[in-house]
Amino acid sequence: MAIRSLAVFCGSKNGKNPVFTEHAAQLGKLMAENNIGLVYGGGSAGLMGVIADTVMQQGGKVTGFIPKILLEWEVQHRGITELVICDDMHERKRKIYSISDAAIILPGGFGTLDELFEIVTWNQLTIHDKEIYILNSGGFYDHLVKHIELMKQENFLYDDAIKRVTIIDDPAELVQYF
Length: 178
Prior knowledge:
By secondary structure, this protein is α/β, with parallel strands linked by helices. The protein has 6 helices and 7 strands, in the order βαβαββαβαβααβ. It has a single domain, classed as Rossmann fold (3-Layer(aba) Sandwich), CATH 3.40.50.450. It has a 7-stranded parallel β-sheet, with helices on both faces. The radius of gyration is 15 Å and the shape is globular. The chain starts with a strand and ends in a 10-residue tail after the last strand. The relative contact order is 0.18.
């Protein structure tokens, strides 16, 4: 299936390593160049803001979903194509998943990990069958990848679901999947 819209889950902070913001901007540029719409959490701060700003600056389409509770905390993005205000985090994630063709996880905190694990779990339960990519910028997810390998070795994972998770180290690697 061709990817026309990509859910991007990432931090509302930039992190310390400059490669995180570089990769977010590179991914945003690649998405716009390939006419891939960005679907994300609707914030203007951190990596969320970097990728949304880049897609918009490159003439792309950005759809954000933000829950009422985070309007002030995450500072909703006022310069994107469409911002949808949701009742709660669950509705936000459900809407992001429903309109995206695939998902990519960039560096982030607890919320980003929650989104990763939920989308992988939904994949495992056949709620959806979307491809999931993890952008391992600067080795950020090295420990998580090792833990996933351990879970597989210990027979806690279903092969069908884990086969849909692809680890990449550079945004340019994603172009082959567009």
